[in-house]
Amino acid sequence: MRLLAFDTATPATTVALALADEKLLTRRHEPGPGERPGHVSELLPLALELLDEAGVGFAQLDRLAVGIGPGTFTGLRIGVATARALAHAHGLPLVGVSTLRALAAGAAGPTADVPAHLAVLDARRGEAFAAAWAGEQELLAPAALAPEALAEAVAALPPGTVAIGDGAVRFRAVLETAGAVVPADDSAAHRVEAAVHARLAAGMEPTAADAVLPAYLRLPDAELALRRRRATAS
């Protein structure tokens, strides 16, 4: 199966192209310190680089896959909108993949011998997006959690649960105090990789492109500010 997958839920832009011969090509852009995410400028060029390297076009793909978050509002909008536009333009099936699920699946790997994986992304506002799995079994549904709630969630998971993601790095003290194991800050396990999205999407059922929506899990800052202004005005 020829499958193009990408994720823009985090500051990184990650793209992968899975080919029929099981060859996998990847590209990634990480913003430097103080830089804004490069989703707008990097996503399509990275995808086109992979297609050019493989010598295939969009018309020769079997399906597309996109990370639906949770994550940054702007990043998710860019990624999902781009995926839907490409699916419509080229008549391709589209699969939405949970960014948290992909993060956990990537850390688990085929031989990882740990009781569970807790995927944690930095949600800003002092919160984390988190979800946990033991193999294919979901132990904690995706949610936006404050540190206290995150600690309570970890306490309910099997001892030795491994927490990964940029949120695991940020909330290391909370997670480790609650009993989770957090790899070193520079561990590759903390990175969202589109290669995992491609692997998961190959076994998922595509849906109508317009049915693939971002999983925000909470209201955007602009909407919250608007509601506060309305409440104050009334």
Features:
234 residues, four-stranded mixed sheet, Nucleotidyltransferase, domain 5, alpha/beta, 8 helices, 2 domains, five-stranded mixed sheet
Could you explain the architecture of this structure?
With 234 residues, the protein is of the alpha/beta class. The longest helix has 18 residues, at 73-90. It has 2 domains: 3-99 and 190-229, Nucleotidyltransferase, domain 5 (2-Layer Sandwich), CATH 3.30.420.40; 111-189, ATPase, nucleotide binding domain (Nucleotidyltransferase, domain 5), CATH 3.30.420.40. A hairpin with a 2-residue loop joins β6 and β7. Helix content is 37%, strand content 23%.
Short synopsis of the structure:
It contains eight helices and nine strands.
Q: Roughly what fraction of the amino acids lie in strands?
A: 15-25%
Mean pLDDT level = 93
Question: What is the CATH topology descriptor of the largest domain?
Answer: Nucleotidyltransferase, domain 5
Note the main sheet. Answer: 5 strands, mixed
Helix content: 25-40%
Shape: globular
Question: Which secondary structure elements does this structure contain, and how are they paired or packed?
Answer:
Elements: E1 3-7, E2 13-18, E3 24-29, H1 39-54, E4 63-67, H2 73-90, E5 94-97, H3 99-108, E6 117-124, E7 127-134, E8 137-145, H4 147-155, E9 162-164, H5 166-170, H6 172-178, H7 194-202, H8 221-233
Parallel strand pairs: 1-4, 4-5, 6-9
Antiparallel strand pairs: 1-2, 2-3, 6-7, 7-8
Helix pairs in contact: 1-2, 3-7, 4-6
